[in-house]
Design brief:
Blueprint (H helix, E strand, L loop, with lengths): L8 E2 L10 E14 L2 E14 L3 H15 L18 E9 H6 L21 H5 L6 E4 L10 E4 L4 E4 H11 E5 L1 H14 L18
Antiparallel strand pairs: 1-8, 2-3, 2-8, 3-4, 4-6, 4-7, 5-6
Amino acid sequence: MVSSIKSVYRTLNCDRIHQGDVLSDFEFPTIVSLGNDSNIELTSIQYGMILSQDCDLEGIHILNSQIQQINDFSSVNPINGNKFLPSIIIAPAFLAEDVNSGDYLLDMGFKMDNKGKPSKSNWQPIEKNNNPRYHFLSDSEEEGLPNLIIDFKIFYTLPYDYIFFKYTDVYTCSLSELFRESLSQRFFSYHSRVGLPNFENIVNCEND
């Protein structure tokens, strides 16, 4: 059976937020700690990817539509909230060249390892999605997107209403279904990994 998917990206209508949506030039408030003090600052990402499950995003959209039709929605007259989703997972999608050079977190004050040195052996697994921490997305001339990479350690959770309020202004395109499912599987697989103890570093007290 020949797949009907013809490209990595597709354009959807903006009736609701979808998993795999690409947002561009998106700003949101974050808390920055400075010693014992903290400030609220605006974080800006050139590209961001929605990672929350699409069934959950569809569910909260349906729930919000129901709420809009109810005049007396309150704690006194509650409705079924099984589909309630207060927050959404969004991950920055960094320029591949910045990940390669290790400069993609400079805005946060961090210099990462240069992925292209001393040889391409570090970079090729990333580009082919064989490195579990990173997800490579090829460029799209049609959508005006460069090669992008998601670092699965770098993501944010933001209120659903905040993203929805800005959605039509920052929406660019969406991943096609199979590419979306691949990204989702790799992201949640990375965060389900289990760290096992290194018994070689454990002191045996019985022989003391």
